[in-house]
Amino acid sequence: PAAKASAVRAAFLNFFRDRHGHRLVPSASVRPRGDPSLLFVNAGMNQFKPIFLGTVDPRSEMAGFRRVANSQKCVRAGGRHNDLEDVGRDLSHHTFFEMLGNWAFGGEYFKEEACSMAWELLTQVYGIPAERLWVSYFDGDPKAGLEPDLETRHIWLSLGVPATRVLSFGPQENFWEMGDTGPCGPCTEIHYDLAGGVGAPQLVELWNLVFMQHNREADGSLQPLPQWHVDTGMGLERLVAVLQGKHSTYDTDLFSPLLHAIQQGCRAPPYLGRVGVADEGRTDTAYRVVADHIRTLSVCISDGVFPGMSGAPLVLRQILRRAVRFSMEILKAPPGFLGSLVPVVVEILIANLVLEDEAAFLASLERGRRIIDRTLRTLGPSDMFPAEVAWSLSLSGDLGLPLDMVELMLEEKGVQLDSTGLEQLAQEEAQHQARQAEPVQKQGLWLDVHALGELQRQGVPPTDNSPKYNYSLR
Ligand code: ATP
Ligand code: MG
Ligand code: MG
Ligand code: MG
């Protein structure tokens, strides 16, 4: 059976964390924080804009970010990346979608590593046949004084992509910009051939790797960024469709429960996935619009954007009205129908995540229990439970059981924990952490991304894994 969407998302995050040392960060809200240039968050990179511009508060946690990965909730309705009009008409655009991304800040890694990680993930971890993948690179823009990105072309060739599947395009396709102003740069994209080598290729864009090098100023000019960065984004819905062997994002487990609920709620003819002229009565288009829009409405409202009179709220109101009109006029929905779909969205986007975390934690709990039982068998009747074992249960990356839970489990077994020993371990750990941080704190300095980049260029080795103190000043 094909991987479920939640497993696909988890595999992306685990790949960047476990194989390539990325720190996982949560999705930001779809409501942009302090950025009037955006109506909604439209890409994973939005929350890192201060890092790109070199304006990050050096005391903030973000100042320590070197390699991070996440899954970002994105809304593309209104503004520069506006897909509202396309939604429903095709099988790959949504107003709300999740963008999986990885970042390397300040030269932590650049083109070569970014391309090879992406290739490794798609072909080895997800097992997508390499012959189905096409790539594109930026072929320059003489008017803006931008050179063709032949380096990236060479990287793809050296990764084994045949020249026939390495294409190049101009700024329209291969120069990514966040908005009318803001960070931007040449990009390279990975596309998937739905036709599978039969007849003309039918490409769907999967992943965009952007090499952030410029800032688009209000006067339209391009200014160089203080440092270069990697910024990538891949649509989860499209990736899941590919991995589930579907031509349409709507035929995946991210949408099919919604389409089913729409059919039930409207007593409409079943969804057949037709597009264009084939979808004569626009029934299938209506299905897609309603399924898409209810996701967007649910996510926006849960992030605090409500339908309203101007700006993003106005766009959201238009989305709501579009959904109502399509469902009433085409699908003959009864009043109150739209609201009844919200629990289905919750089921798809939230309940499944809870179920997975629940299952993972149950497994840890089971292992913890076995370790406790094994340890108990080695103890005499008046022995206390060893602090080291309790500590490893609570802190070892795999188990991570809360300490009070470990204590409770022991209490239930009628054993006492060596709490003095445990306290000592905690103190030692705290001292260890403080020592690690010392070189920086002593000098009263906070490292900023520029300093970090400079140190890295000079080849100063990292000192520990703590994100704030990745490099010590010596
Ligand atoms: P497209 O050309 O298909 O409109 P894009 O070039 O506008 O995509 P990017 O800005 O490069 O998209 O975003 C990165 C990735 O996010 C894309 O490669 C794609 O997988 C996904 N994506 C972009 N827009 C949407 C959308 N409206 N719905 C679903 N996924 C999307
Ligand atoms: Mg687009
Ligand atoms: Mg594109
Ligand atoms: Mg793109």
From TrEMBL:
<comment type="similarity">
    <text>Belongs to the class-II aminoacyl-tRNA synthetase family. Alax-L subfamily.</text>
</comment>
<feature type="domain" description="Alanyl-transfer RNA synthetases family profile">
    <location>
        <begin position="3"/>
        <end position="474"/>
    </location>
</feature>
<protein>
    <recommendedName>
        <fullName>Alanine--tRNA ligase</fullName>
    </recommendedName>
</protein>
<comment type="function">
    <text>Catalyzes the attachment of alanine to tRNA(Ala) in a two-step reaction: alanine is first activated by ATP to form Ala-AMP and then transferred to the acceptor end of tRNA(Ala). Also edits incorrectly charged tRNA(Ala) via its editing domain. In presence of high levels of lactate, also acts as a protein lactyltransferase that mediates lactylation of lysine residues in target proteins, such as CGAS. Acts as an inhibitor of cGAS/STING signaling by catalyzing lactylation of CGAS, preventing the formation of liquid-like droplets in which CGAS is activated.</text>
</comment>
<comment type="subunit">
    <text>Monomer. Interacts with ANKRD16; the interaction is direct.</text>
</comment>
